[in-house]
Amino acid sequence: MQILRTPEEQFSNLPDYNFEPHYLKVPDDRYGALRMHYLDEGDSNAPVILLTPTQGSWVYIYRKLIPLLTAAGFRTLAPDYIGFGRSDKLPHTEDYSFHRHIGWLKSFLNQMNVQDATGFLFDWGGFFGLRLAAEEPHYFARLICLNTHLPTGDPSAGHEWFRNWRTEMLAMKSFPQGEMVNTGVTTPLSADEIAAYDAPYPDETFKNGPRRFPMILPIDLDDPARPANLAAWEQMSGWKKPLLTLFSKAFLGTAMGPERLINHVPGAKGQAHAGIPNTSFYLIEDATAELARRTTEFAFN
Q1: For 117-159, what is the HEC assignment?
Q2: In the predicted model, is pLDDT for residue 292 greater than 70?
Q3: Nearest CA among 183, 149, 165, 161 for reference residue 286
Q4: What pTM was computed for the model?
Q5: Alpha-carbon gap, residue 216 to 208, rounded angstroms
Q6: What is 8-299's CATH number?
Q7: pLDDT digits over 143-169, tens only?
């Protein structure tokens, strides 16, 4: 079977989305070169912010944030993970693993010559980005972590909830993307916005990447990504560059809260950490302007 590529017409007339697509090739040992899509907005000489998507979304989630950040003086880079958005989709769920996603992202960052960027790490963006920051610290001058951690497979109170959620999601005949985001916001999305989140996936054959994501999160002691993630977590105990947490306020003090990061990473000390009120999981949708303001203040501090 061959890789799948979403037809370009799927991305026509999406609400609030008028960005020029960019592509590069990342190497893959099974399929050769894969096409990865990314957005590149703002002055090419401006400080870089790397925006990372997550489960249920593609770079469309940053459609309202990007103009605010570019107006504030940043260059924004936002890649679609392989299997998501306008990037290539692979034919088998087994084609995706935590390790392979790390490799594809490293190739992207190396080809784009990303150095001393501000990492805007939302959920899966942090699962990957914190690992990358530990292994290749030159990528980032500072980190903003939003509803995320570095998963190491250690037992957690949140894992039972996640396993139950994963079982429910995988049992669905049609894997929800746009509706997944819509159930995780405080202000409901419009029907057109939900459709835009679904646009990269004309049918279920295009959804192997999203379907696989819940299965590759390292939450078990025997997970193949555990050793490297444990090593990265240990490296982060010496991370002295600034690290800011901006979490949904409802997560504070829970298993999904930022406290473990704040207590472990030296660069988090003294930062203006915040629980963002009136937000649900997809706080990028709920609090765009506030996140832009806090990001600008932190990155230019």
Answers
A1: EEEEEECHHHHHHHHHHHHCHHHEEEEEEECCCCCCCCCCCCH
A2: yes
A3: 183
A4: 0.96
A5: 12
A6: 3.40.50.1820
A7: 999 999 999 988 776 777 788 878 887
